[in-house]
Amino acid sequence: MATLKILAAGDFHSDASAAKRLAKQAVTENVDLIVLNGDIVEEAHAEGIVGHFADTKKKLLLIPGNHDLLITDFLATKYGAENLHGKHHITYNIGIIGAGGANCGMHALTDQEMYELLKTGFDKIKHLPTKIMVTHVHPSGTKMEQFSRFIVGSKGVRRAIEAFQPDLVICGHVHEAEGVEEKIGKTTVINVGRKGRILELDKLIHTTG
After folding, report:
1. Rounded to whole angstroms, how far apart are CA atoms 63 and 138?
2. Are 100 and 106 in contact (CB under 8 A)?
3. Domain with 73 in it: what CATH number?
4. What are phi and psi of 57, to 5 degrees?
5. Taking burial as the number of CB atoms within 10 A of a residue's CB, which of 109, 120, 146, 170 is the most buried?
6. How many CB atoms sit inside 10 A of residue 99's CB?
7. Is the pLDDT of residue 209 over 70?
8. How far is it, in rounded angstroms, from Cα 162 to Cα 3?
9. Which pLDDT belongs to residue 44?
10. Which pLDDT score, from 0 to 100, does residue 4 have?
């Protein structure tokens, strides 16, 4: 499998200092790809965040969270990024699919809507040997769900993981679970959070698979 080095992060809610630090880390560690998995900005405070990542000239994928669902298309267009929400991306023979938003808030997605968004992307990459799923909300029935009494995981994401068996799931949403890593079947699920994670895909899958 080809090596793919990813900087993945989210949930920094317009924190420009976090964005600047992570963008610098992406350059220092020479990542191939930056993945931002939602709640990147607050819709009323969107300036000066995604631009830090765009300035790295790295390939940039993003999805919305529950706080920036309506502005992500605008940010992707403005900064030359790719909004992965309900879509797919292929690099190094690796398929990446995404679904943003969450099962809470004014623009909450149902479990069925979340599953269908992920299935739309999966149908385009199911022939590939390695698959990554990027979501904002964490899956239900996991340790991550136990970190908050109020923020529940998504049954739609859980259903998609069990049906599609991706190698890796990048998620976030519940801040208290930042850094938690666990397995659903053969799938490694990581809450990357505001601090972010450098993921070397070949090593990660070889170590945890």
Report:
1. 14
2. no
3. 3.60.21.10
4. 65, 15
5. 170
6. 31
7. no
8. 25
9. 66
10. 93
166-197 per-position pLDDT tens digit: 999 999 998 888 999 999 999 999 999 999 99
Helix axes 111-125, 155-164, angle to 10 degrees: 30
Q: Which two tokens stand for residue 68?
A: 């920036």
Residue 172 structure tokens: 């976030």
Report residue 172 CA to chain centroid gap.
Answer: 7
**Distance set, CA 195 to CA 19, 65, 105 (Å):** 10, 16, 24
pTM, to two decimals: 0.93
Q: Are 84 and 61 in contact (CB under 8 A)?
A: yes
State which residues form the domain around 63.
5-208
Q: Which residues contact 150 (CB under 8 A, 6 or more apart)?
A: none
Q: Are 138 and 146 in contact (CB under 8 A)?
A: no
8's tokens:
């993945």
Q: What's the total number of domains in the chain? A: 1
pLDDT digits (tens, 9 = 90+) for 20-56: 999 999 999 999 999 999 989 877 676 788 999 999 9
